[in-house]
Design a protein that fits this description.
By secondary structure, this protein is an all-alpha fold. 79% of the residues lie in helices and 0% in strands. The protein has five helices and no strands.
């Protein structure tokens, strides 16, 4: 029968080696878990960027709520990306650059909406000023100035044509122009009626 003589301390070394091996494997597992978290976050950014781009492509300046919702989502993702931390190195530069690109496109669409709102407002102001000018001219007009009456009639016609020809992707309502325009039309009609009556009287006297 043979006996194997184990050197003193070998069993202790073997146990320590096993513990060290297990510890290293645990570290490897934890490292891999952290790498998976980083990779998952990176993939999530790209997935959301693709989603944002698709949604943005379906939007127009009339989609105010959708535009704002997308801006909020982009902002939230930028914040969460900024707060992301890890003991391992990571770089989301390319992904965040794509996100910034979508953000700029959303802002451009929002700016385009603001510009259109301003165009509508400016057009409305112009219509209202013109309508008030017509109202004032008609109410202070004279039946003896035919050219002035014709000019007022032309201004009314042009205003109505401009109003009818206005178009926009956004909703608009120029209803506040109705009152001064109506007052001007009524005053002009009264002047024209008075002028006709006066001319009829003149003609009847001539006859």
């Amino acid at each position: 029968q043979e006996f194997m003589i184990v050197p003193f301390g070998f069993e202790t070394f073997d146990t320590q080696k096993g513990s060290l091996t297990t510890g290293l494997q645990d570290l490897r597992d934890k490292r891999q878990e952290e790498l998976d978290i980083i990779s998952g976050f990176e993939s999530d950014i790209l997935s959301k960027v693709d989603d944002y781009s698709t949604r943005l492509g379906d939007m127009g300046i009339a989609d105010a709520d959708k535009i704002q919702a997308l801006r909020d989502e982009i902002s939230d993702l930028q914040k969460s990306s900024g707060r992301f931390s890890s003991e391992l190195g990571f770089d989301f530069g390319d992904e965040l650059a794509e996100l910034s690109g979508v953000s700029r496109d959303v802002n451009r669409l929002s700016d385009k909406r603001d510009a259109e709102l301003q165009r509508i407002s400016d057009f409305e102001t112009n219509l209202l000023d013109t309508a008030r000018g017509i109202e004032s001219a008609a109410e202070t007009g004279s039946i003896y100035n035919a050219n002035n009456l014709n000019a007022i009639a032309d201004a009314i016609r042009d205003l109505k044509a401009d109003r009818a020809g206005f178009t926009s992707e956004l909703d608009f309502d120029f209803g506040n122009v109705d009152d001064p325009l109506s007052q001007g039309e009524t005053a002009l009609a009264n002047l024209q009626a008075e002028r006709k009556s006066a001319l009829d009287d003149i003609l009847s006297n001539v006859e």
